[in-house]
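May I ask you to comment on the folded chain given beneath this request?
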Amino acid sequence: MLNIVVCVSGGGTNLQAIIDGVKEGKIRNTKIVGVISNNTGAYALQRAEDAGIPAFCISPKNFESREEFNEAFLKQLKELNPDLIVLAGFLVILPEKMIEVYRDRIINIHPSLIPSFCGTGYYGLKVHEAALTRGVKVTGATVHYVDEGTDTGRIIMQKAVDVLEGDTPEVLQRRVMEQAEWIILPKAIDQIAFGQRVK
C-alpha cells in the first residue's frame, strides 16, 4: 500500500481528482493518509474532511520564523509517515531538508509542458497568461519529481492540451485541469503505487 500525503494551498481540484481516483479504483494500492495546507481558508481542507481524510493547516503566518514553520511542517509529515508526497497546487517553497529526507518521493503537478512557462513566478493563472501572451497553440500539464530547483525535477508524465481562439487565462486553466491535470496526476500516482508493489 502506497501511503500518500497531499499538500495543497487552494481549492483542491487536483486533490479531488486523487480522492475520486482512489475511490473509483483508477489509483490502485494507494491510501491518502493526510492533507496539509498552508492556507486556513483552503477549500481543500473541507474536501479532505468530507472524504474522511485527516486534514492539517500549517500556516507560515502562525510562526515567528520560516525555520519554525519548516520544522512544524516536517514534523507533521514525519508523523503521517508517507511513502509519497503529492504537491497539488502547493504554493510553498519546500525546505531543502525536506527534499533531502524525501528524495525521489515528492511529486508536483505543473500546468504547462515543462520546460515552457515554469520556474520562479510561474504558478496558477500566471502560467496560462504567459502561454496566451506568447501565442502558443499547444499547452498542457506535467507531473514531475521535486528537487532543489523550481520545476526542474525529472519528468514523470505530460499531456498536451490545445489552445483555442478566444481563450482567456481562466478558460484555458479550466481546460488544462480537465483535459490534463486531473488525468495525469492520478495516473502518475497509480504508476508509482503499482511500481512499488511489483518491485
The radius of gyration is 16 Å.
